[in-house]
Amino acid sequence: MDSLDKEQREIFEDKETKGSGKQKIRKPAIKQSLQTGIEDIEPISSGQTSTTGAELIRQPITDTLLNNYMPYAMSVIVSRAIPEIDGFKPAHRKLLYTMYRMKLLNSPRAKSADIVGLTMSLNPHGDQTIYETMVRMTRGNGSLLHPWIDSKGNFGRVYSRDMQYAAARYTEARLDSSAVLIFDGLEKDAVDFVDNYSGTMKEPVLLPASFPTVLVNSNLGIAVGMASNICSFNLREVCNTTAAFIANRKHDLLETMPAPDFSTGGDLIYDREQMEKIYETGRGSFKLRARYRVDKKENLIEIFEIPYNTTAEAIIEDISAQARRGKLREVLDVRDETDLNGLKITINYRKNTDYKMLILKLFDLTSMETGFSCNFNILIDGKPRTMGVYEILENWLKWRQECVVREANFERQKKEEKLHLLKALELILLDIDKAIAVIRLTKKDSEVIDNLMSSFDIDKVQAEYVAEIKLRHLNREYILRRIDEIAALEEEIFELKRLAGSTRLINSKISKQLRDIAKAYGRERLTALIEPEDAPVLDEEDLIEDYNIRIFLTEEGYFKKLALTSLRGNFDLRLKEGDSIIQEFDTTNKAEIIFLTDKAQVYKIFAHEIEDHKPSFIG
Hints:
By secondary structure, the chain is an alpha+beta fold. It has 19 helices and 22 strands. A 4-stranded mixed β-sheet has the order 14-9-8-17. Strands 10-11-13-12 form a 4-stranded antiparallel β-sheet, covered by helices on one side. It starts with a helix and ends in a 13-residue tail after the last strand. Mean pLDDT is 87; it is low at 1-41 and 43-51.
């Protein structure tokens, strides 16, 4: 190591060549020195220290990636970016569960700052990050088709990039009444619980959602090396489709759930072939368009619904930029008139403009029309999988069946415990005088339980239950009611055992829940479906503005194109000194211009491909 360090110092030492003033560089020596030095170094075993300098250990780059990069990548994939089969990312789940623990379901709202603060006991990623997650899930923001949080205050709007939400200390929130659908069964051992990051409390691994929430709300996640982009579907359509799928695995999902539905509304250009691809593979794309109304008298176009993946500011910027480029000369003004009544973008256009053609140009040139690319990447048992809607429903059903079985077993266990106590009560009540005598003849309080156990052949739990019965309950009515309850419990336990052991009964229960949810919480679609033939698009030629022009060709070969509007009034047509015009003619911007050369060659160009010039331009 000493020899290597010495040689390297000599190599990189500044030396000047006599008379040249330039630094002498010995590149071959560097290469040879490093190669020789590395070959001479022996790998240092674990625990061995070097007394001559820094350690040099040979390690394959694949091992470094595996040990250092992969744990981080998997942490982002599993713990942050990709949703699971219950439809939630960890950040969403931790926030909602915290609100559930705060008893914010069907109760007055709490300050958002309080909610964020308590959520940090489950999610240590910072208050601002938690609050941003909360904002997106609120009804006020409108990002979700089916919001889980009922909000009060300014939470911004999904269709506005610049409308900032208020600070957490000013806003309030509580769980939406429909959130009961994602917590029902949580207290019945429907899902597993794990320790939080500090080991001080438990949190659910998944939320036992009663319907496929993974399809009802949009979910975008960017992980390391992969991403997920799930579009939202109408809740009523999802529930009815899932019920039909349970009854018949070959059910055509497009019949009952034809396409996605978005919280911002708009129009979806329906391509059945593309939808079939998305439903089968989880990948594909479709186009969304803004919705508008036209005021012909005032020459106005009012946009009131826009595609989910754009904003009002982006549309206004696009229109302004295209107008400056001369591609939307018909537009006089565009402004944002959004108020408490909702989104509104107003476009003023020139008089005598063909507004239908203008709208088509707006769709083509701005984000009034956007594409939505689907990538249904979901975590199943901790592993990311890209699945179509069919496979998602299959996996959700499998998971939901497990939840129902666990709930049934939990309820059965509780009823069996109660039945066990009532069986002892039945024995006691059949010979109540004997029970009273046993208790009265017992000398010590600590011996009552043991004496009851030996006298009636019951266990300790039963004996303690009997010993706590009040004297007022030793009447005929109470005795008969308890005995009748035994029969009812035995029947319920039998039915729960049947349910847990029968896939048919489990599916029947899930289907009934889905139909009830569709009836109670379903609503009409917000995004309308339009056929491709009802959504015309512009040809490339339609985007070319047609206007009168004048072409000039000079003796020295200069060529210029001028719009006739630029030739109005007094103007100075600039030419190169000594040059003169040899050809001049009028035409339109869509015309074809043919050039013939002295070598018998022909060239063709469209007039619109030539940039407009000013009279002062030489050419």
